[in-house]
Amino acid sequence: MMGPLLIGLYVFVLAVFVGFEIITKIPPTLHTPLMSGANAVSGITVVGALVASSSGDTKISSILGLFAIITATVNVVGGFLVTDRMLGMFGKKKK
Amino acid sequence: MSLLENLVPTLYLASAVLFILGLKGLTRVKTARRGNILSSSAMLVAVIATLIEMGTVDYQWILVGLVVGGLIGAVAAIKVEMTSMPEMVALFNGSGGGASALVAASLLWKNVIEAEGAGTAVEALGTAPGITAVLSMLIGALTLSGSVVAYLKLAGKISGNPILLPGRHVLNLALVGVSLGLGLYATWSVADPGTLAMLTLVVLAASLLLGVFLVIPIGGADMPVVISLLNSYSGLAAAATGFVLMNNVLIIAGALVGASGLILTQIMCVAMNRTLANVLFGGFGAEETASSGGGGGADEYGPVRSFSAEEAALVLEDAESVMFVPGYGLAVAQAQHAVRELASLLEKRGARVEYAIHPVAGRMPGHMNVLLAEADVPYEQLLEMDTANPELKSVDVAIVVGANDVVNPAAEKTPGSPIYGMPVIEVWNAQTVIMIKRSLSPGFAGIKNELFEYDNTMMLFADAKKAVQGMVTELKEL
After folding, report:
1. Confidence at B432, pLDDT banded by 50, 70, 90
2. What is the value of ipTM here, to two decimals?
3. CA distance to partner chain B, nearest, from residue A7 (Å)
4. Do B99 and A43 make contact, defined as CB atoms within 8 angstroms?
């Protein structure tokens, strides 16, 4: 039976390989949106921030959690929106 | 198992699959926007799953955080100019990294420091989460401070030149040692809450300092590499947080971002013919300039032929094929719309217009493509360097707009040049090269560009936007 750390490592390594396979196929034209989009994905840490800020009290842990959720949400919302804005420019119909 | 227990992991799995499908969408321009929407829905699913998993909690901070963060992010994303995209991405990278570090710190406080009789962090959280919490803080904090420095350099708020501190390698090594060593010691064997809190703060401070020292010696032209790498770090920090929480979605999403940043970093390095180690530790701009005797100033040049916009327009009048080569100067001058206008005019006159994009043109991977897309240039006209180079032999006029090092023939013809071996766009193969540049000043590599002296080169000394607009005006009058 594998420990949780090992399972986590399996998942991590396999995901890295999936990432490599897909990302090498992305054309240079889309590298900026890829970066801002991937950037937004790294805001997945918002999931951890939710847990961290779920006490609602004013202990240090909750204040840290509050700042975590603010910064993570900036990352997620800003990242996805700006990526969509850019991709919208690529997709514009030409007259 | 209850329904709820099954539901949450299933939602996490769905989220992970959606992230991967979203990334896959980005492999084609046509499906890219849908891919981005898939990724954002993956995020939503993950958030919902977490909220379900947490059950009823106090939502006060969660709501405040989501609203404040959401507003800041949305306003920034809507307002930002396409030319400032590198700065924007740098800041977003930093906030993602910072968030991961904050999550790890918060969990340490909540489960260890504030919990009575919790023992050491490793005892309270488990071995792997205890250790990865340190990693998450280290990588997250250095991503934050490194990104802020990168932002300041990109925005011109501090000098883009490499700032080389004496003994910086030793210093950096010491900082890594301090943050990792102290961090592991603290989580492993410190049970006293006060001491643990203090040591955690020291670890965070050392990591922040490390981020600053890692980015400050890197020159402005190497920013594409730095941003890509920080992008990768922000993913790794998220993955480390995933290990702390034992949450597979975090691990998977973090790994995908880590891989993406790493690949872009690699592509940028190849395009500059440099190794990653050289970019990170070389302090390129500074040392090379010093060794070549401050080379590349105006006095080093023989006769160069300076032309007016009118003369350039005369050349363009008969051109049947034109290739634009944009560089960072185009972004600085916001010349993308003027370029598009000139291109439309040329197309109306029957010329074939294309654009050759060097992988490191601009300040982040793909920067030029976004700017030109903003100006309605069809992406089919944007050629990668490898496609553009063979075509240049049959091109009548190549117009270089604000690029320098990426069209320097020394990269192919002068062994011993600092940029020798770097792949460049071979504009000199075109019949005529119109080089729009403000002066003879060197590019970031700090070296002379012999292209300026070539017989088929027309130098047009002006701001990129004004020069292109001038050519448009002249061409209309012909």
Report:
1. very high
2. 0.94
3. 9
4. yes
